[in-house]
Design brief:
CATH superfamily of the largest domain: PA2201 C-terminal domain-like
CATH class of the largest domain: Mainly Alpha
Number of helices: 17
Number of strands: 9
Shape: elongated
Order of helices and strands: HHHHHHHHHHHEHHEEHEEHEEHEEH
CATH architecture of the largest domain: Orthogonal Bundle
Radius of gyration: 29 Å
Helix content: 40-55%
């Protein structure tokens, strides 16, 4: 069942093959386009039926495949002058709810009401196309010519990737380029020698009068994830822990208690550690290795609980030794006024907690009756 044919995405390949074989564009615009639309509607209906059904059945109707098929059909139908098919796709409730900038752009071309998507993981293959559509009038012609000439090279890179990224490859013909030429009344003469530019389809689009936009219209551009903040400031900032004399259990408890909460209510040092791990303010690190990015994300969450600032961006290296990892994370936190305190259990596990830099100065290399708090430097010297 999992290997069943895709009901809608295979139409793009079949359409490309028929065009390459010389099928008249008028027939492509009529028979194949209508059949593709009908099958897409069936696919969307079956997908809705499969929601909540047996996972083995639901696997046949994978959302991403169907939605990419919907995008492909909306693009091809627009390039063929089949505004009726394109608007039917764009207006389908399942497609209308799909965040994708390429659909946003097509909606502008067809005058279909639609808000600009605030997320997008399906328009990657159309990123270059979106850049041309969002370019200013004075830059659009040059951007269009560059896009068509680079179309093959830019799309080929997706073929060498593993799924799902490899499935972004848009096919053998730059059908979507025809939309740009017609919608913005661009001169396609300089690119008609490009093998992937569908000249016959472009001539057909010119004859049937594909929709045209005003000169000052700019289509929505590619979605860009907002850059994370340089520093994640806590909603409630904590104050440094007051220390006079020896380190007590109360001091240890104060370091790992979420900001604004009362005491953890533990009566032993071990119980405090257990409660802090449960609260997410104390992290357990395996001495055998560390997933740096994952640990950094957990530290961000711990900082949020503790009322401590944290860096907005996490290190992207995936694995490292535990000692090297805690060193890098300590440096990462230090840049925003925090540090790591380590509790060395002399076992396969290490406990670390983020603390304010001011608390780090007070408590590093101090101990309660049963637990020693170490700075990362002291930990490396002890364990390294």
């Amino acid at each position: 069942m999992a290997n069943a044919p895709r009901l809608s995405r295979g139409h793009k390949r079949y359409f490309s093959l028929c065009y390459a074989a010389g099928m008249p564009v008028a027939e492509l615009a009529a028979d194949l386009c209508d059949a593709w639309r009908d099958d897409l509607v069936i696919s969307l209906r079956l997908q809705n039926v499969m929601t909540g059904a047996d996972p083995n059945l639901r696997a046949v109707f994978r959302d991403r495949d169907i939605y990419r098929g919907a995008i492909d059909l909306a693009v091809v139908a627009t390039s063929l002058g089949r505004a009726d098919v394109a608007t039917a796709v764009l207006s389908h409730p399942s497609v209308a709810a799909l965040p994708a900038r390429v659909l946003d752009a097509l909606a502008v071309i067809h005058g279909v009401p639609r808000a600009v998507s605030e997320s997008d993981d399906l328009s990657r293959a159309y990123e270059g196309w979106l850049k041309v559509g969002s370019a200013t009038r004075g830059r659009r012609q040059a951007a269009f010519e560059r896009y068509v000439r680079r179309w093959r090279a830019d799309n080929e890179k997706f073929r060498g990737l593993t799924p799902p990224d490899s499935e972004f490859f848009t096919g053998d013909w730059a059908f979507e380029a025809v939309i740009l030429a017609q919608a913005f009344q661009l001169d396609d003469a300089p690119v008609r020698d490009v093998p992937e530019y569908p000249v016959d389809l472009a001539d057909h689009a010119r004859e049937v009068g594909v929709l045209r936009l005003a000169d000052d219209v700019r289509l929505p551009g590619p979605f860009k994830k907002p850059a994370p903040p340089k520093v994640i400031e806590p909603e409630v900032a904590r104050e440094p822990v007051a220390l006079s004399g020896t380190v007590s259990r109360a001091h240890l408890e104060a370091l790992v208690t979420p900001v604004g909460d009362g005491p953890l209510g533990a009566t032993t040092d071990d119980a405090i550690l257990e409660a802090a791990v449960e609260a997410g303010t104390l992290l357990v690190i395996d001495w055998k290795g560390m997933a740096l990015e994952e640990t950094a994300e957990m530290l961000q969450a711990a900082c949020r609980e503790l009322g401590i600032p944290a860096p907005g961006r996490v290190p992207r290296k995936k694995t490292t030794t535990a000692l090297d990892g805690v060193r890098k994370l300590d440096e990462w936190l230090h840049a925003v006024g925090a540090r790591l305190i380590a509790i060395d259990l002399d076992s396969d596990d290490l406990l670390v907690a983020p603390v304010l830099a001011a608390d780090h100065e007070k408590f590093a290399d101090r101990a309660t009756d049963t637990i020693r708090l170490r700075s990362v430097e002291q930990l490396i010297a002890h364990r390294g």
